[in-house]
Design brief:
The protein has 217 residues and is α+β, with helices and mostly antiparallel strands. The protein has helices at 85-98, 149-165, 170-185; strands spanning 2-3, 7-8, 14-20, 26-31, 36-41, 45-51, 57-65, 68-76, 83-84, 113-120, 123-130, 133-142, 194-196, 199-205, 209-215. The strands form 2 sheets. It has an 8-stranded mixed sheet, with no helix packed on it. Strands 9, 10, 11, 12, 13, 14 and 15 form a 7-stranded antiparallel sheet that branches. The longest helix has 17 residues, at 149-165.
Length: 217
């Protein structure tokens, strides 16, 4: 078993730990001192998605085949905190209410790991929460809605809510996004990230949709 690196950085919400492994070997992994989890072996390659961590964390990967176990340890680098989860949840709920955005209210505490804040009709807002800290947020919006005025209005409102709840200027972030979207429509394949009040909005367009990650760098 050979991981591609000894140390991985978080990109978006997760660090992607990958490498080669014997075909048909059973792959398991453990994040820090957490529970042992099953990993997938895709014809001799493994890919493990590790949610961004608040401190440098060891990931122990094991491959078992024919009674023999191979163990490798890699590390996932520390990721910065985006916001306190209880504070974020309070602001998110309040701003949704003020702007009359339809959304289930968030609980004041949250379990560790990747959680869906909103998921409907292919639109998804997901957060990585560790020890009641928001480490990152992903906002996914399907390309098929980009010419639908009602859906785009809803997208804009949710972007303002998310941005404001993590301490950025929501209206300015929306203006900056609209410029990026215009550049993408004009055929620009790579767009700049948005930076606002210490928050980075990593923005990618694909043929399926928009992927935006809210992180602290």
């Amino acid at each position: 078993m050979n991981p591609t690196k000894s140390a991985y950085s978080t990109n978006g919400l997760v660090a992607v730990v990958k490498g080669t492994v014997s075909k048909n070997a059973q792959v398991t992994y453990q994040i820090g001192d957490g529970a042992v989890q099953k990993g997938a072996n895709n014809d001799g390659t493994f890919v493990i998605q590790v949610p961004g961590q608040l401190k440098k964390t060891t990931v122990t990967v094991k491959a078992k085949k024919s009674g023999k176990t191979t163990t490798k340890k890699v590390s996932v680098k520390k990721t910065k905190v985006l916001a306190s989860y209880p504070e974020f949840a309070m602001k998110y709920n309040l701003i949704n209410q003020q702007m009359k955005v339809v959304a289930d209210p968030l609980p004041t505490t949250q379990k560790n790991g990747l959680v869906d804040l909103y998921k409907k009709d292919g639109i998804r807002i997901r957060a990585n929460v560790q020890n009641q800290q928001v480490v990152g947020i992903a906002y996914v919006f399907p390309v098929k809605y980009m010419k639908n005025k009602a859906k785009m209005k809803d997208f804009a409102m949710r972007l303002i809510v998310l941005s404001s709840a993590v301490g950025a200027d929501g209206k300015q972030v929306l203006k900056d996004y609209q410029k990026l979207a215009k550049d993408a429509q004009n055929g620009q394949t790579t767009v700049d990230n948005i930076h606002n009040k210490g928050v980075t909005f990593e923005t990618n367009f694909s043929d399926k949709g928009l992927y935006m990650y809210l992180v602290k760098k």
